[in-house]
Write a structure and sequence with these properties.
By secondary structure, this protein is of the alpha+beta class. The protein has 2 domains: 16-57; 66-167, Band 7 domain (Tetrahydropterin Synthase, Chain A). Helix content is 57%, strand content 17%. The chain has helices at residues 2-9, 18-57, 98-106, 108-120, 124-127, 130-150; strands at residues 66-69, 74-77, 86-95, 157-167. Strands 1, 2, 3 and 4 form a 4-stranded antiparallel β-sheet that branches. Strand 2 and strand 3 form a beta hairpin. The longest helix is centred in the N-terminal third of the chain and has 40 residues, at 18-57.
């Protein structure tokens, strides 16, 4: 029986085979390398990758919109033979540049003067449609931008809003 136990053991004194010990050691070393490699990769990603993201997020945020409301509505006479005789529009202009808002405030008399003929040339049927209102908004935007350019002021209007459009 002693010979059979010696043949089965073929290993160290504990009776464990030598090949199983080497396999366990290789598996443990491979697992350690994988864990260390993953930790190193994660550290590289967060430490080096984080600086690139910080550079991207340090860009200045866009300035908030500033609004300028014309102090009084603009009332214009429409062409004859239309269901309405008058149109009244109350405007709010938006820009991100405070210098543009100051220029709008300074040149309000010119703006009101140049918008009267634009409003007077509108057709009642067209102004009753969303497309007609958008076309009027574009005409007003172009006219105010031209006034600011003509006077040498910064022309950075972003939006034209209607607070009120009344036709009578």
């Amino acid at each position: 029986m002693a010979k059979k136990a010696a043949k089965k053991g073929k290993g160290d004194e504990d009776g464990a085979p030598k090949k199983a010990g080497k396999k366990k050691l290789i598996i443990i070393l491979l697992l350690a390398l994988i864990v260390l490699g993953g930790g190193g990769g994660a550290a590289w990603y967060f430490l080096l990758g984080g600086t690139e993201k910080a550079e991207v997020t340090t860009e200045p945020a866009p300035m908030p919109l500033l609004y300028y409301r014309l102090d009084k509505p603009i009332t214009a006479t429409l062409e004859p033979d239309q269901p309405a005789s008058f149109v009244r529009v109350n405007l709010v202009l938006a820009s991100r540049d405070p210098a543009v808002i100051d220029a709008l405030r300074l040149h309000t008399p010119i703006i009101r003067n140049d918008l009267l003929p634009i409003l007077g040339n509108q057709k009642y049927a067209e102004l009753n449609t969303p497309e007609g209102k958008d076309a009027l908004r574009t005409q007003i935007y172009d006219a105010i931008t031209a006034i600011l350019v003509r006077t040498g002021s910064p022309a950075g209007i972003e939006h034209v809003y209607f607070n009120e459009i009344v036709m009578q």
